[in-house]
Amino acid sequence: MRPSNVISDWPLGEGAVAAALREHDWEQTPLGAPEGWPERLRLAVETILDDPLPQWVAWGPELAQVANGAARDLTGHAAPGRPLREAWAALWPEAGPAVERVMRTGRAEVVADLSLVPLRDGAGAVRGLRATGLGGVTGRDGARYRSIFTSMDEGCAVIEMIADEAGRWSDFRYLEVNPAFTVHSGVSDPVGLTLTQLLGTPSPRWAQIYGKVAETGEALRFQEPELVLGRVFDLNVFRLGGPGSRQVAVLFSDITARRRSEAALREGQERLEAIFASAPVGLSEVGLDGRFLEVNSELCRILGRGREEVLGLTIGDVTHPDDMAPSLAAVNRALRTGAGADLDKRYRRPDGTLVWANSRITPLRPAAGRPASLLVATVDLTARRAAEAALRESEARFRQFGDAAGDVLWIRNARTLAFEYVSPAFEELYGLPVSEVEGVGSVRPWAALIEPQDRPGVLENLRRVREGEHVLHTFRVRRSDGALRWVRDTSFPLLDEAGQVQRLGGIYHDATEEVDLQERLRVLVAELQHRSRNLVAVVRSVAERTLTSSASLEEFRARFRARLDALGRVNGLLSRLEEGERITFDQLLRTELSALGVLDGEGGGQIRLMGPVGVPLRSATVQTFALALHELATNALKHGALSDPAGRLAVDWRLVAAPGGERRLQVEWRETGAPFVPSDPPRMGYGRELIERALPYQLRAQTRYELDANGLRCSISLPVSTGPELAFSDGEG
Q1: What is the DSSP letter of 194?
Q2: What is the DSSP letter of 579?
Q3: Which of 366, 455, 469, 615 is the most exposed place for a label (fewest CB within 10 A)?
Q4: Strand order of the sheet with strand 607-610?
Q5: What is its EC number (predicted)?
């Protein structure tokens, strides 16, 4: 059974030796479990496994050995981890002293056809050695050596050193090479030629290095480039034979591609380290135990701590207690799914302040596939949360302002024209709930309330605002209850950072009363002009009638003054409209007729008034209604029933109940007995226009004006003020 403490995926490879090493119980050897081995020991073992030459790696005080397949074939299947002395029992008398010298001096040696090269730890101390069999290790014939020599993957060459006249090593000649030589060097058929003959101007270091090995007998392991070939080589060099021999063996591999990969890897690593260090977000590598393994300067700034201090802490040391549970849940979610997980959390600084940040957690997986640590990207949310809080406060103030405003504040999407915000005053103005237009995604529900005659202009003005104009315009809307309201709209574009129209804003103002006031003022101005002319005519008529019926100048003066006073009284009634007084219909009627002097003796039996007393009129209707009565009375005096002694005027009024419970005053004005000459076609004088157009528009009155040869008949029905119960029975007023 495989021991539970082995690393199941080391060493990599499908060979029998690699499989045996994976299954071996290393805890029972001086080397211990492989996960505790130094990286250099593991790398050395991986290097020899597939080598066709017999090779051993020995490590530690007891030189516990690991052999490759070729070495096992030569020396037998010594258990991995056994001391080299035991594995080489037959060779130890001859090789043992050389092994001890290599361990003591750190210099490579060749003994008994074995190349012994020291292995050092990260601090440079000799901790073991690598042994390579060069042939005849067990006394077998040269055929086996030749087979290994020709089939090995590494390039191999036997060379003879050449010295110049001064005795300096200047060149060397190739005596023998294996097939892999050409693969690794790119040079064909070198045997018998010197390096200079092959390359022309090779690096002089080759002759210097190889000559030193021939002189000293000390094996070398090094890496060296050759610019002529454009390649970099990893080389093992050792002397063949004893002192004075000029023959050197060279084992080498072309590591150009590996060096390029390593350079690219280093460049990429340096680039990643630069990104990690200078990233504008906090970056950290965190172990599965929660400890910080690496941090950048931005994270240190967020945490308010120095790098060395943070590397001595865990996530729990810097996280607000209330946020630990969500943090652990996010870590577990990231480990379970293999995808990133994020959360907003609070970090604690040494001074007690809290920093809100968003942390994105991503598992980091080594080649084995199991997460070994976590990458945490942390973004400081302080500025964003402050901006969000300011935005919320601004929006709250805006909504408070909108809620309290009497006018309607609105914002539209520039593309769809749909309302994004509408203040509550919309419901009072339009008679439609805000929910039926806000966020609906269409302009139709709102546009349907606009009077058809005004709708095209309103939509055209929206288009103008969308193109960047400021627009002020007025239009009419028909509320859901049927009421007509005038709306004055101030619209303007709202731009984004690029200066493009992103939204439309505006203010709807209920201008109904203002429009009504303007209309009333227009009527009053027109009436003032007309009434001034009529007043002169009335005064003249009163004067003439008074003069005709007066026996003396004194009598004329008294009666004329009284009639002027009556005329002043009706104007006085009109002047009290703004004082909050209620004027009754019979009062208004009598005042108008008295002002014309037709209710005293001169009226005689020409006038009959019949209706309830004290019917109060709405303050807003008195002025216009009085103008209508004045026109009827004036025309009767000038042209109608009161202009001829035979004429008769009958005014009847009563209260009637209209649909919906509304009370209305019904007035019937009837003139007969005088010679009436209707115009053909009927002429629309000021009085008639006032009755037939102004009263319906301003007072919601219903009117009828008929003039023929038999006389004038005028009917007026208008709403009146509610008040104490009034008798509906007729009675003389």
Answers
A1: B
A2: G
A3: 366
A4: 607-610, 648-657, 663-672, 711-719, 702-708
A5: 2.7.13.3
- Tokens in use for 403? 């809620």
Query: Which residues on adjacent β-strands are paired with residue 250?
Result: 157, 237
The amino acid occupying position 668 is E
d(CA 252, CA 563): 140
Domain that holds residue 461: 387-510
Q: Are 723 and 617 in contact (CB under 8 A)?
A: no
**Cβ(559)–Cβ(593) below 8 Å:** no
Question: Which pLDDT tens digit goes with each residue over 12-62?
Answer: 777 788 888 888 889 889 999 888 899 889 888 888 887 777 889 999 999
Q: pLDDT (tens digit, 9 = 90+) per residue, 547-575? A: 776 788 888 887 677 667 656 665 666 56
What is the spatial distance between Cα 430 and Cα 438, in angstroms, rounded to a whole number?
A: 13
> In whole angstroms, what is the distance from residue 623 CA to residue 577 CA?
7
**Beta-carbon neighbour count of residue 652 at 10 Å?**
15
CA–CA dist 263, 661 (Å, integer): 98
Q: What residues have CB less than 8 Å from 307, skipping those under 6 apart?
A: 295, 297, 300
CA–CA distance, 33 with 41 (Å, rounded to integer): 12
Q: What is the 3-state secondary structure (H, E, C) of 598-642?
A: CCCHHHCCCEEEECCCCCECCHHHHHHHHHHHHHHHHHHHHCCHH
680 and 565 within one domain: yes
Rounded to an integer, what distance in angstroms lies between the CA atom of residue 339 and that of residue 375? 12
Six-digit token string for 711: 């006389």
> Do residue 603 and residue 530 come from a single domain?
yes
Would strands 114-120 and 373-380 be described as parallel, antiparallel, or unpaired?
A: unpaired
Q: How many domains does the chain have?
A: 5
Same domain as 398, residue 369: no
Instruction: Identify the sign of the CA torsion 602, 606, 607, 610.
Output: positive
* pLDDT tens-place string over residues 645-655: 889 999 999 99
Per-residue pLDDT tens for 82-113? 999 888 887 888 889 999 999 999 888 877 67
Position 592 pLDDT exceeds 90: no
User: Which tokens is 224 given?
Assistant: 């060296």
| Sheet of 155-163, strands arranged across | 169-177, 155-163, 247-254, 231-239, 220-226
Q: 28-37 pLDDT, tens per residue?
A: 899 998 888 9
Average pLDDT score over the chain: 83
Residue 87, domain CATH? 3.30.450.20
CATH code for the domain in which residue 561 is found:
3.30.565.10
Alpha helices for 448-552 (secondary structure H): 455-466, 512-549
Q: Which residues pair with 194 in a beta bridge?
A: 173
Residue 385's alpha-carbon distances to 356, 381, 391, in angstroms, are: 8, 6, 10
Return all residues near 252 (Cβ < 8 A) that are at least 6 apart. Answer: 154, 155, 156, 157, 184, 185, 233, 234, 235, 236
Q: Is the four-CA dihedral 47, 50, 52, 55 of positive or negative sign?
A: positive
- Does residue 146 lie in a domain region? no
User: Closest Cα partner for 137 from 145, 129, 148?
Assistant: 145
Tokens 């009497």 map to which residue? 406
Of 377, 324, 376, nearest to 348 by C-alpha is 324
